[in-house]
Amino acid sequence: MIRVLLADDQALVRGALAAVLRLEPDIDVVAEIGTGTEVLAAAQRTAPDIALLDVQMPGRDGLAVAADLQRALPGCRTIICTTFSRPGYLSRAMSAGAAGYVVKDSPPEQLVDAIRRVRAGLRFVDPALAAEALAGGASPLTGREADVLRAASEGGTVADIARTLRLSQGTVRNHLSSAIGKTQARTRAEAARLAENNGWL
């Protein structure tokens, strides 16, 4: 049996995924979790083979949780299952140690196939998203530029961002200018929105 832990903050989605997976004779859903902060403890308690994680959850997001699981329970492989069909999220998920990436509007058979493949030691990425990621390339932003844009998206001033990230205001302005240029945006708000839409933040 393939032991699966499900983590999604939407109870209806979580329940529907569990119901679909329980129809498979070789899959056992051993835990259903609603927040990212609960996943690691639940995984240590239930020893799943696969953790099926949403990206956006309260507490810790699925990408951070995937990295946590890789460090703490290397025998548990993770699959990101999300509504976000964005190349940047795919890249960040793989960097965090996820072995699979499935978009929620995929057919149920694709999710089941992904679970079986990942359990067998393979990787699985939604084919349409993989093609888009190859065509689009990696994020043009440096890690610090992404940090600054993320802070800018919360609406603070340059001084606020500098305080939050412990940088000088001049450094913040330089990173913002560079990020605006790389995203071909007109303003920092537009740059943050474009970066978020591409999954780079």
UniProtKB/TrEMBL annotation:
Signal peptide from the UniProt entry: none
Domain Response regulatory stretches: 3-119
SMART domains found in the cross-reference section: HTH_LUXR, REC
Gene3D superfamilies (UniProt xref): 3.40.50.2300
Modified residues (4-aspartylphosphate): D54
InterPro entries: CheY-like_superfamily, Sig_transdc_resp-reg_C-effctor, Sig_transdc_resp-reg_receiver, Tscrpt_reg_LuxR_C, WalR-like
HTH luxR-type domain residues: 134-199
Coiled coil: none
CDD domains according to UniProt: LuxR_C_like (cd06170), REC_DesR-like (cd19930)
The entry's keywords: DNA-binding, Phosphoprotein
Pfam family, one: Response_reg
Protein name as catalogued: Response regulator
Species this protein is from: Streptomyces pulveraceus
Organism lineage string: Bacteria, Bacillati, Actinomycetota, Actinomycetes, Kitasatosporales
